[in-house]
């Protein structure tokens, strides 16, 4: 017997205009045509694959190392009363989770657990899989899911891009709270997108730890360039690749810093110093708050303040 939800999905799939009007409808059609999933399937459940999980966690150890503190911070802010935090690989396999003890059974029943596959091919339209398919932040709210078994959830996701510009992971916040409105989802979505960008920059700094890292966009902490001792750009975050029209993915062709920005490293360090002082001024000298504002870690901000000659004392900021 076809469920009302499956009937709605099938009607959308059969409509020649629905996919053009709605990204959700486009995903539903993709699930039916490309992935050949039955929207009336009430039994499909994700299951943990321990062998695949071990392989992927080993391959992505550096990502997990930098991401775990960010997941903890996000969980402390919103991971309560029915919300779970999940980090996946680029295929939708959940690598790490933050779930409250009282919510673990419910999430387990839905198949949201470490080691389970939440790609669009496996679970139809859902926050994790559709975010990966489309490479953008999105929200899949309740009956926007493809399968009836997932329609109780709200899933809020953002992609994470690696230092080579390729999508490497997805960050997900899932909730089954009945009082979680679409408006509140938007607020959480902004946080998820920010944390995903922070993971990106943390990983970029880790990979390019042997180079100078320059902030090349005062209005965007994710626009980072890695520069060698000769002021040659050898790496760029995805945001920097877009800003300077560099290779979208893979290795960045070495270029002189001045060729890209019109400035040498000292000029960009001056802009970076100004951005840090503005952040510290806005937060009245609170280094932790300034670090969050800039999208970097507290220890990283202290190191950069020391390198750029910025005092921890707010009274000295006006003199810098």
Task: Describe it.
By secondary structure, the chain is an alpha+beta fold. The protein folds into 2 domains: about 40-205, GAF domain (Beta-Lactamase, 2-Layer Sandwich), CATH 3.30.450; about 205-315, no CATH class. It has helices at about 5-15, 20, 25-35, 50-60, 60-80, 105-110, 120-125, 125-135, 180-205, 240-245, 255-260, 265-280, 285-295, 300-310, 315, and strands at about 85-90, 95-100, 140, 155-160, 165-175, 210-215, 225, 230-235, 255. It has a 5-stranded antiparallel beta sheet, with helices on both faces. Strands 6-7-8-9 form a 4-stranded antiparallel beta sheet.
Would you summarize the structure shown here?
With 320 residues, this protein is of the alpha+beta class. The chain is built from 15 helices and nine strands. The chain has two domains: 39-203, Beta-Lactamase (2-Layer Sandwich); 206-317, no CATH class.
Topology, please?
Blueprint: H1 4-14, H2 18-21, H3 23-33, H4 50-59, H5 61-78, E1 83-89, E2 94-98, H6 104-110, H7 120-123, H8 127-134, E3 138-141, E4 154-161, E5 167-175, H9 182-207, E6 212-215, E7 224-227, E8 232-236, H10 238-243, E9 255-256, H11 257-261, H12 265-282, H13 287-294, H14 298-308, H15 314-317
Antiparallel strand pairs: 1-2, 1-5, 3-4, 4-5, 6-7, 7-8, 8-9
Helix pairs in contact: 1-3, 5-9, 12-13, 13-14
Key features of this structure:
4-stranded antiparallel beta sheet, alpha+beta, 5-stranded antiparallel beta sheet, single chain, Beta-Lactamase, 320 residues
Report the major sheet: 5 strands, antiparallel
Order of helices and strands: HHHHHEEHHHEEEHEEEHEHHHHH
If you consult CATH, what is the topology of the largest domain? Beta-Lactamase
Largest sheet strand order:
2-1-5-4-3
Number of helices: 15
**Which CATH class of the largest domain applies here?**
Alpha Beta
Proportion in helices: 40-55%
Name the beta content range: 15-25%
Spans with pLDDT under 50 lasting ≥5 residues? 314-320
End-to-end distance: 72 Å
In CATH terms, the superfamily of the largest domain is: GAF domain
């Amino acid at each position: 017997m076809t469920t009302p939800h499956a009937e709605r999905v099938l009607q959308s799939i059969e409509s020649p205009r629905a996919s053009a009007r709605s990204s959700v409808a486009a995903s539903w059609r993709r699930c039916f045509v490309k992935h050949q999933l039955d929207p009336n399937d009430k039994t499909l459940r994700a299951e943990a694959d321990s062998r695949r999980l071990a392989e992927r966690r080993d391959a992505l150890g550096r990502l997990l190392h930098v991401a775990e503190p960010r997941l903890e911070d996000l969980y402390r802010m919103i991971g309560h009363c029915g919300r779970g935090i999940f980090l996946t690989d680029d295929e939708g396999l959940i690598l790490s989770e933050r779930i409250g003890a009282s919510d673990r059974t419910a999430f387990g029943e839905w198949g949201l657990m470490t080691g389970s596959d939440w790609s669009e091919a496996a679970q139809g339209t859902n926050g994790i899989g559709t975010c990966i398919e489309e490479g953008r932040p999105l929200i899949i709210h309740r009956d926007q899911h493809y399968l009836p078994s997932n329609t109780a959830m709200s899933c809020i996701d953002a992609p994470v891009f690696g230092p080579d510009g390729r999508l490497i992971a997805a960050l997900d916040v899932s909730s089954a709270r009945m009082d979680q409105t679409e408006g509140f989802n938007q607020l959480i979505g902004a946080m998820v997108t920010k944390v995903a960008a922070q993971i990106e920059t943390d990983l970029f700094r880790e990979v390019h730890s042997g180079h100078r890292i320059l902030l090349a966009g005062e209005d965007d902490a994710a626009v980072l360039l890695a520069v060698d001792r000769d002021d040659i750009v050898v790496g760029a975050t995805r945001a920097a690749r877009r800003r300077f029209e560099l290779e979208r993915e893979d290795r960045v062709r070495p270029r002189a810093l001045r060729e890209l920005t019109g400035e040498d490293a000292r000029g960009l360090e001056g802009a970076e110093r100004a951005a840090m002082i503005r952040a510290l001024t806005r937060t009245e000298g609170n280094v932790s708050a300034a670090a969050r504002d800039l999208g970097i870690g507290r220890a990283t901000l202290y190191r950069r303040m020391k390198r750029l000659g910025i005092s921890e004392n707010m009274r000295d900021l006006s003199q810098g």
